[in-house]
Write a structure and sequence with these properties.
This protein is mainly beta. It has strands spanning 3-7, 10-13, 18-25, 34-39, 46-51, 58-60, 68-73, 78-83, 92-98, 113-114, 118-123. Strands 2, 4, 5, 6, 9, 10 and 11 form a seven-stranded mixed sheet that branches. The protein starts with a strand and ends with a strand. The chain contains no helices and eleven strands. Helices cover 0% and strands 48% of the residues.
Length: 124
């Protein structure tokens, strides 16, 4: 069946960097808009970044713009999130998601496929 599996999370000091990966299997997501969301305890799920099917269009949440970069490798059926200048407020479980259409979206309800999440913890 269709599956998204995140990896690359972990513990990092403030100011450091991490690169998250999301490997897709079961179907090709090369024609799907994809995105990253995150959720901290007691908080609502937050939009982080999104990318259209080709990678030619991206969009970022205000709190990560200029620090995070979303990208994709359709040949590898993999989505990435490069996170730089991390701070304690970035601590969360990060989820990748895929749509059934090529366009990107900032709305989590428009995504039909979700990974299980990977924990990112930033120590201050």
């Amino acid at each position: 069946q269709e599956q998204l599996v995140e990896s690359g999370g972990g513990l990092v000091q403030a100011g450091g960097s991490l690169r998250l990966s999301c490997a897709a299997s079961g179907r090709t997501f090369s024609s799907s808009g994809m995105g990253w969301f995150r959720q901290s305890p007691g908080k609502e799920r937050e939009f982080v970044a999104a990318i259209n099917w080709s990678g030619g269009s991206t969009y970022y949440g205000g709190s990560v713009k200029g620090r995070f970069t979303i990208s994709r490798d359709n040949a590898k059926n993999t989505l990435y999130l490069q996170m730089n200048s991390l701070n304690a407020e970035d601590t969360a479980v990060y989820y990748c998601a895929a749509r059934r259409v090529p366009a990107l979206s900032t709305d989590a309800s428009f995504y039909g496929y979700w990974g299980q999440g990977t924990q990112v913890t930033v120590s201050s």
